[in-house]
Amino acid sequence: MIALNTSAVAWVLFAVITIGWISYFFLNQLSARRELGSEVEMAPNRKPYYDDEVLEGRRLERMQVLGVLLLITLVVGLPLYWAFEPSRQAGAVSGQQERFRWWGEELFKPTAELGFNCSGCHGGMEAPGGQAPYAVTDPNTGELKTVNWYAPALNTVFYRYSKEEVRFILNYGRSFSPMPAWGALGGGPMTEQNIETLLVYLESIQLAPESCATDKNFTATADPSICEGGVLPQADRGSIQASVDAYLAANPGASEGEALFNLELASGAYSCARCHTSGWSYGQPGVPGQGAFGWNLTGGATNAHFPSEQDMITFIKAGSSNGKKYGMQGQGTGRMPGFGHLLTDEQIKAIVEYVRSL
Prior knowledge:
By secondary structure, the protein is mainly alpha-helical. The chain is built from 13 helices and four strands. Among the domains are: 87 residues, Cytochrome Bc1 Complex, Chain D, domain 2 (Orthogonal Bundle); 122 residues, no CATH class. About 4% of the residues have low confidence.
């Protein structure tokens, strides 16, 4: 705490010294006596000064004591400053992160609380994920209709995307969805500072991982409980399995891969169908895997693009990176999330087997 208050202590000392000098000046002026006849002329050397006994006695001793005190201050103060400086810098960084988190939380709040209403669609920590009203046009009839679009929970967003990918989505939005461009770069109302503080807040609400390992695909965050290479907590992964079991019970003969592909979680956070099945996001799914945000997975296109099943598994685990090659001749855009931190290897393999059968 001493290190964190260095600036405040310095200002207090400056104020005390300044007030002391001003007080000394006025007291000295008030205590000075004008010598008789000085109004005529007062030579600088007319005032008698201290004799040698005084100069080399108590006065000299006082100056020596003062010098020793100043030396002690330097000898003790500089090492203490050196010792506390790293913690002061760390405290400044953590303090900045906490301010950013708080500012981001304020932006996330509903409009009634002077926020940008992110929580209106995505929900809060108590009820992550939500719905957003949206107008879609039927491609066959041209009919315009209003639907409720499932907005994903954001407390696992960094398990699927890197920080820069989330920044891109916030800046430019998601075309053909209720997610608008929020950043000034994309024509939205938020400054770059707003976007940065919102990212810090989103990092702080990520679910704590079950375990940690070295994996560069996972984004390190400001929250110390989120460690690089973590996987989704077992409790949340258990809810995925529960949804799989419910799907299999309602669809006899379906495979686990099909269930995982078409999961109908309220938040839609883990469903492949969210991007690869038209209409899934608002509860009116078309042909599974026939394409929407993501490309068409039916008709053997997947097998042609990924001749090796293992290459496809690796791609789904890590997701795409902007400009990075994948498959035969694919170039990543960063919009395909990675699922290696959300699903087990067995679950991803089951999804790949289902997709390759379409």
